[in-house]
Amino acid sequence: MCGIYCAIVRQPKHERIISIQPLRVGVIGVGNMGLNHARVYSELAEARLGAVAAMILEHIA
Fold first, then answer.
1. CA of residue 26 relative to chain centroid, distance
2. Domain residue ranges in the chain
3. Among 38, 21, 18, 41, which residue's Cα sits nearest to residue 30?
4. N or C end of the chain: smaller count of CB under 10 Å?
5. Which residues neighbour 6 within 8 Å (Cβ) at sequence distance 6 or greater?
6. How many other CB atoms are there within 10 angstroms of residue 42's CB atom?
7. Could you read off the pLDDT tens digit of each residue along the chain, which spans 61 residues?
8. Which of the 8 DSSP states describes residue 22?
9. C-beta pairs of 42-45 under 8 Å, 24+ apart in sequence
10. How many helices (H) and strands (E) does the chain have?
């Protein structure tokens, strides 16, 4: 099984799954749920947390 982002290459008589680079993600809005999403994305091997944005600067720190 591959992670969040993968490709399936169809070849005659069989399938082969090829992993691709981790999916780059960003979180906009870091209230209670946004902080949780950012934490989970940062822990996933299949994802790379690229950016976090918030209206209130203290929420990012």
1. 8
2. 22-61
3. 38
4. N
5. 17, 18, 19, 20
6. 13
7. 445 545 555 555 555 656 678 889 999 988 889 889 999 999 998 889 999 898 887 776 6
8. P
9. 44/3, 44/4, 45/3
10. 1, 4
